[in-house]
């Protein structure tokens, strides 16, 4: 059952009308920041480079791109519709606002898994005894899209792992109900220009792409996503089911 955390926010339709015949990629990129007080936050080392490279590659291939980005030090691709967000909640709402008008959703962002229960309105003072900060899980954006049974977009997630890469990624593919999971080793991928990928498909197929610049990998990924999207949906966006 859908939990309170995964519910689409009030006033936001999950399926806005599709307005053009052009293929639209929605891509999330970068980290999120979960504020503790006005000067501190919880975040991670994601640079956003993989997501931005996918955005560039999709634009180069002639697709429309909606790039929903956490705070990064990268120049936005010129022709993308850029939506800058900071927190996981802002990213959740932006994704749900635009997913229904997209054909391929690629959730590449390193969304923080936890946020403080309370955000202090004033700077928390140093305390010689130490302090504890109570954290709650953030909403899982990928999983919330995976739960939309009638979705009309290809859903792609990433898996950042440091161990048991394939097993952990396969679990995410299953539990978040995506079409594709792109698994990478976070120690190779974080803050660098190169990556190596293991791509897991819903039908059990696997594809490995050995270490290469993120710009090269992004072009390969865009080709794969577009091909699988066309296999899954016909040109009227009706899902094609194969008879067994
Ligand atoms: N993701 C998301 N919302 C979250 C957490 C993750 O949409 N709150 C998405 C990421 O964008 C990515 C996928 O889920 O596409 C997997 O993210 P990852 O950080 O690898 O895994 P987690 O689900 O956070 O699990 P864990 O940290 O335990 O590996």
Kindly describe this structure:
With 244 residues, the chain is an alpha/beta fold. It contains 6 helices and 12 strands. Helix 1 (49-60) crosses helix 6 (214-232). The structure holds cytidine-5'-triphosphate (CTP). Cytidine-5'-triphosphate (CTP) is lined by residues 88, 107, 109-111, 113, 138, 140-142, 157-160, 172.
Précis, in short:
The chain has 244 residues and is of the alpha/beta class. Helices cover 26% and strands 26% of the residues.
Keywords:
244 residues, alpha/beta, 8-stranded mixed beta sheet, two-stranded antiparallel sheet, globular, disordered N terminus, binds cytidine-5'-triphosphate
Weakly predicted, low-confidence segments: 1-17
Using only CA atoms, what is the Rg? 18 Å
- Cα separation of the termini: 29 Å
Helical amount: 25-40%
Order of helices and strands: EEEHEEHEEEHEHEHEEH
Portion in strands: 25-35%
Question: How are strands sequenced across the largest beta sheet?
Answer: 5-4-1-6-9-10-11-12
Largest pleated sheet: 8 strands, mixed
Ligand catalogue: cytidine-5'-triphosphate
SSE topology sketch:
Layout lengths: L23 E6 L4 E4 L2 E3 L6 H12 L3 E6 L11 E4 L3 H11 L5 E4 L6 E3 L18 E3 L3 H6 L7 E8 L3 H11 L4 E6 H4 L4 E8 L4 E8 H19 L12
Parallel strand pairs: 1-4, 1-6, 4-5, 6-9, 9-10
Antiparallel strand pairs: 2-3, 7-8, 10-11, 11-12
The chain binds cytidine-5'-triphosphate.
């Amino acid at each position: 059952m859908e939990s309170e955390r995964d519910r689409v926010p009030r006033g936001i339709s999950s399926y806005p009308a599709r307005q053009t015949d052009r293929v639209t990629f929605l891509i999330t990129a970068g980290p999120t920041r979960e504020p503790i007080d006005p000067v501190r936050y919880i975040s991670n080392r994601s640079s956003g480079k993989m997501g931005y490279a996918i955005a560039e590659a999709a634009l180069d291939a002639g697709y429309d791109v909606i790039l929903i980005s956490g705070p990064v030090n990268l120049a936005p691709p010129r022709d993308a519709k850029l939506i800058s967000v900071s927190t996981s909640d802002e990213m959740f709402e932006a994704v749900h606002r635009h997913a229904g008008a997209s054909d391929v959703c690629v959730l590449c962002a390193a969304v923080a898994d936890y946020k403080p229960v309370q955000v202090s309105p004033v700077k928390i003072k140093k305390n010689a005894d130490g302090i504890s900060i109570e954290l709650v899980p953030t909403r899982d954006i990928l999983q919330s899209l995976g739960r939309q049974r009638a979705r009309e977009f290809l859903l792609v997630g990433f898996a950042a792992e440091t161990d048991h890469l394939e097993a952990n990624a396969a679990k995410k593919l299953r539990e978040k109900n995506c079409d594709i999971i792109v698994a990478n080793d976070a120690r190779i991928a974080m803050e660098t220009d190169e990556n190596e990928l293991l791509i897991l498909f819903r039908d059990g197929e696997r594809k490995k792409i050995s270490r290469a610049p993120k710009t090269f990998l992004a072009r390969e990924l865009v080709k794969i996503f577009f091909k699988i999207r066309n296999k899954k949906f016909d040109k009227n966006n009706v899902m094609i089911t194969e008879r067994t």
